[in-house]
Amino acid sequence: MGDHRLLDVARRRIDDLERKWSRFIPTSEISRLNAKRGQPIAVSDDTFLLVRRALEGWRATGGRFDPTVLGDLVRAGYDRPFEAVVLHADGGVSTLQRNCGAIVADAATGTVILPVDAGFDPGGIGKGLAADIVATELIAAGAGGACVNVGGDLRVEGESPAGDAWVVGVDHPDGSAEIARIELAAGAIATSGTRARAWTVGGERRHHLIDPRTGRSSGTAVVALTAVAREAARAEVATKAALLSLPGWELDTLEELGCDGLLVDEDGDVRISHNMDRFMQKALAS
After folding, report:
1. Alpha-carbon span 75 to 133, nearest angstrom
2. Confidence (pTM)
3. Which stretches within 92-185 are classed as H helix?
4. Longest dimension (CA), the chain
5. What is the Rg, in whole angstroms, of the alpha carbon atoms belonging to the chain?
6. Which of 13, 41, 85, 200 is most exposed by smallest CB count within 10 Å?
7. CATH of region 5-124, choose from 3.30.70.330, 3.40.50.1010, 1.10.3980.10, 3.40.190.10
8. What three-state secondary structure class fits 267?
9. Which CATH superfamily is domain 151-283 in?
10. Cβ distance 121 to 143 under 8 Å?
């Protein structure tokens, strides 16, 4: 809501962040960091914030969220844009390991040093943080309300078009029906799962949710998990950590990280966290 020219500003800003953060754009700052591992690389304020938030997520989740699973993703076959992976799935080759604790982010110099043996993948946290940045900037620029959706990670601020709470529908992962409607005065929603970005290599089903403990696609029985938080980046981190929790503890993990949410298991059953009712405009049958 507000000046419609802000829509163009928002689109350009999202494009700007993609150019900085995509690992599939050779000239991006993330690609430069990965190409010059072991060296201090000056980065923009946006990219420094991304790295800092990723490190915070890694620490907060005890390593269940790990932005250094790039080598594992490549070995799983996710070594190019997903549209190309689906067309011709194959295992990739990489010697990169996980080593998030060795990343150095120096605020005084605005530089980041990746360890020589690990790469950085913005993954979902990049989408969430982009939504956070753009929504915040839109409100600062005079928008009465903003709803920013970047690849399914959504952030809302200010007044909705209806003048009351923002209402967000959550679909069943098989696309068969809407399973919930969530009301937010302000905040964020992120959903992660194992069905949307999946492929098969040599008869083995693989997906983008890498378990840092094994380096392989997670074997979770939860097919989709939605987190509600104040910020989309935080919600995104929480979804990954929850999906990699012990079976049956996914929603407890969300709550430990200060979030609420819901999940859908492989039988199609829907479960919600203890305090999720306060956000639910309408719960639909699973």
Report:
1. 32
2. 0.93
3. 123-140
4. 53
5. 19
6. 200
7. 1.10.3980.10
8. coil
9. ApbE-like domains (3.10.520.10)
10. no
